[in-house]
Automatic annotation (TrEMBL):
Origin species: Qipengyuania gaetbuli
Key words, A-Z: Membrane, Transmembrane, Transmembrane helix
Name the record gives this protein: Uncharacterized protein
Transmembrane segments: 60-80
InterPro entries: DUF5676
Lineage of origin: Bacteria, Pseudomonadati, Pseudomonadota, Alphaproteobacteria, Sphingomonadales
Domain of life: Bacteria
């Protein structure tokens, strides 16, 4: 079974974009709690740090993560399709 690389790229970019927006809203709404969660995820103490999230950072991050994830998913589909032939 072949994977449509373009559709996988677009769907992955959309899902990553939605996740980025949700995460950004959580950072805006509960910055200390999200800093603690982030610290737990990377096994670090970020309690002395603060978030620096503004509207341009939200947009740049949204584009960077969405495009990057879409490209990686598309490349993965291309490699997979070549392996199953």
């Amino acid at each position: 079974m072949k994977i449509n690389a373009f559709k996988l790229s677009i769907s992955t970019a959309a899902v990553f974009g939605a996740a980025w927006v949700i995460c950004s809203l959580l950072v805006i709404g509960a910055p200390q709690a999200m800093m603690q969660v982030t610290g737990h995820m990377v096994h670090a103490d970020f309690s002395h740090m603060n978030w620096q999230l503004n509207s341009s950072g939200l947009v740049v991050g949204l584009l960077a993560w969405s495009i990057g994830a879409g490209l990686i998913a598309g490349a993965t589909a291309v490699v997979y399709n070549r392996l199953v032939d």
